[in-house]
Amino acid sequence: TYQGFRKRSLGVVQFDTTKNRFLAAGDDFSIKFWDMDSVQLLTSIDADGGLPASPRIRFNKDGCLLAVSTNDNGIKILATSDGIRLLRTFENLAYDASRTSENSKNGDVRSLADVKPRITEESNDKSKVWKLTELSEPNQCRSLRLPENLRATKISRLIFTNSGNAILALASNAIHLLWKWQRTERNSSGKATASVAPQLWQPPSGIMMTNDVTDSNPEEAVPCFALSKNDSYVMSASGGKISLFNMMTFKTMATFMPPPPAATFLAFHPQDNNIIAIGMDDSSIQIYNVRVDEVKSKLKGHSKRITGLAFSHALNVLVSSGADSQLCVWSSDGWEKQKNRFLQIPTGRTPTAQSDTRVQFHQDQIHFLVVHETQLAIFETTKLECVKQWVPRESSAPITHATFSCDSQLVYACFLDATVCVFSAANLKLRCRINPSAYLPAGVSSSNVHPLVIAAHPQEPNEFALGLSDGGVHVFEPLESEGKWGVPPPVDNGSTSSMPATPPVGGSGSDQAQR
């Protein structure tokens, strides 16, 4: 129930929302705005007056333009900074069209139809000079190292909370770190950002969320965690028992499943937070009901420890990956195995013994990303076929981790040489490379410090965070003047299809050359 309305509105209140969780409503001769995570009114504007008592309003798809009805049967368009850029693009096109129209009046026989081919020619010229965006200086992007008062040895797991206003990390010493952003004048949304430093948060009791490490060396264990959809609790393990922590109080609510075997990956069932899939170091997957403390099913099909689990609620399947480079698809109804396939390791590459294979579903819930030190690949789930693949050149550093952006339009990948690469997800083509010198302090060698994990913001497609081998966490955003990471390379067939339908030819050619 949102606060800030008149006691009795003067008409039917129309409201609309944006995908980055803002709510707007036309009320009391103005437009009122709320952050959907807070019931308090964020701000209200009268759009320079002339509005009816209950203005009609509607956002555009991206939420950067807002149309508002006026008293004189007109429409005002309000815009964010992104919206202003969009309007300028249209104004430039309109100027081209009007100039052509003027020429035709003056005896020039060109018609308005001539404008479009000319624009196409210009865009073709741009495509010829397309260059990979390379960032090597700190002033070329926004990056922030989060404050720390505890020396974590290295960051093993990293995630933004689902609300987008905090980052949770699990260090290799089994301790969790939680950074929270507050609402301030500089950060009115209270969301995680590289522009404002957050607070390393602890409850008043001073306790920390520390995993059980009984009979295991946490530095040698395989850490794993999963966050509930409402951010209220986290399930986590560092080689010992699995712990269930309350995210508000940091108290341990329960511990279960003492090793052996030890848990190596955790995933909540998308429809029921009481059901979790637990990947084990003995290669099995256990489907566990937390509420009744019972293993519902035990899945066997891998030959080495489980390194990745991902649910598709659209297909009702669980995809698993293992240190054996095998992918398996399981029905989440009866838990029977539907398909399995081994990842093709590129010729001449020998993965390390610790090489993990990770899986993550695309927003369409049909394709999924596979991350291995030797490659990135997109698979179609029902046939378990690789539809796109990117392989670094042989001389390049191995991939340490990768993830989709929240809208699945980008893939962020980090490497052992501390480089970060941004790919267009539709074709796995490289569009931006962030070199270590852009974010590591002067004097810190990328041979000593590198990212181990990468996490994407849940609402901001161009924001991500890195967890480093020195215990640091960095948040990245493009410069506000840029708004995105580079420009996508020209598409071969002139279209930008959401997901490729044809298998690639290995990881060869230009894809390799781009690294």
From TrEMBL:
Name the UniProt record assigns to this protein: Anaphase-promoting complex subunit 4 WD40 domain-containing protein
Stored SUPFAM superfamilies: C-terminal (heme d1) domain of cytochrome cd1-nitrite reductase, WD40 repeat-like
Lineage: Eukaryota, Viridiplantae, Streptophyta, Embryophyta, Tracheophyta
Region annotation Disordered: where it falls in the sequence: 479-515
InterPro entries given in the database record: Haem_d1_sf, Topless_fam, WD40/YVTN_repeat-like_dom_sf, WD40_repeat_dom_sf, WD40_rpt
One record GO biological process: primary shoot apical meristem specification
Record key words, sorted: Repeat, Repressor, WD repeat
Taxonomy, superkingdom: Eukaryota
Swiss-Prot/TrEMBL WD repeat ranges: 13-44, 299-331
